[in-house]
Amino acid sequence: MLRLLLVDDHTVVREGLKRLICPLADKWSITEAGTGYQALELLRHQPFDLAIVDLSLPGMSGLDLIRRIKGEYPSVAVLVLTMHSEEQYAIRALQAGANGYVTKDTAATDLVAAVRKVASGGVFLSAQLAERMVLQLNGQRHVPDIQVLSNRELDILQRIVNGQRPVEIANALNLSIKTVSTHKRHVQEKLRLDSTAALVRFGLEHRLGREILGPPSEDAGEA
């Protein structure tokens, strides 16, 4: 029996995924977690073969959770299931240690195929996403300006696009307002944008307003 850990903060999404997977799966065991912290607690007490992880999680980001899983439980495969189809997100997830990357509009049969391949030790990407990633990495496809941002800066930009105020961002990421303002300034400098309105326009153009990556581990010590 394949033991799956499904990590998504939306109950409706988890229930929907279970309904999609169960009729096509061969007696898989599915355990749910709504946060990265809950997922790690479950991993401490029972074995899993595969974790299906959303990038958007409260408290601990999906990227941070992937790093924790691969660092503490290297035998557990990780499949990212997200809204984002852009290659820059897939690259960040794979760099964090993910074994596969699929989007939430993937057909149920493809999702089951991805689970089976990743759980058996393989790597799964859709053909279209894999092609775009290869072209980008080979310099044959334009690299979006967003690639110059760190994971922390990308997270803060997304939160600005979603309408969060500096104090809300600071509270969500456990940072000082001054640190948030510093990161925002760095984002503006890197993207050569001179206002919050320009940041929001840029974010909307790059479809950054839909999902929050959360605080990445690379900057976890900043205050």
CATH level 1 name of the largest domain: Alpha Beta
Q: Mean pLDDT, as a whole number?
A: 83
CATH topology of the largest domain: Rossmann fold
Number of strands: 6
Instruction: Based on Cα principal axes, name the global outline.
Output: globular
Please indicate the percent range of residues in DSSP E strands (runs of 2 or more). Answer: 5-15%
The CATH architecture of the largest domain: 3-Layer(aba) Sandwich
Structural class by SSE content: alpha/beta
User: Largest sheet, described in full?
Assistant: 6 strands, parallel
Number of domains: 2
In which order are the strands of the major sheet placed? Answer: 2-1-3-4-5-6
| CATH H level, superfamily name of the largest domain | Response regulator
Could you explain how this protein is built, in words?
Residues 3-119 form the Response regulatory domain. Residues 142-207 form the HTH luxR-type domain. One of its GO terms (biological process) is phosphorelay signal transduction system. This protein has 223 residues and is α/β, with parallel strands linked by helices. The protein folds into two domains: 3-137, Response regulator (Rossmann fold), CATH 3.40.50.2300; 145-219, Orthogonal Bundle (Arc Repressor Mutant, subunit A), CATH 1.10.10. It contains ten helices and six strands; from the N terminus they run βαβαβαβαβαβααααα. The protein has helices at 11-21, 36-45, 62-72, 87-96, 108-119, 127-137, 151-161, 166-173, 177-191, 196-205, and strands at residues 3-7, 29-33, 50-53, 77-82, 100-103, 124-125. The chain has a six-stranded parallel β-sheet with strand order 2-1-3-4-5-6. α4 (87-96) links the parallel β4 (77-82) and β5. α2 runs parallel beside α3 (62-72) and α7 (151-161) packs across α9. The protein is globular, with a radius of gyration of 18 Å.
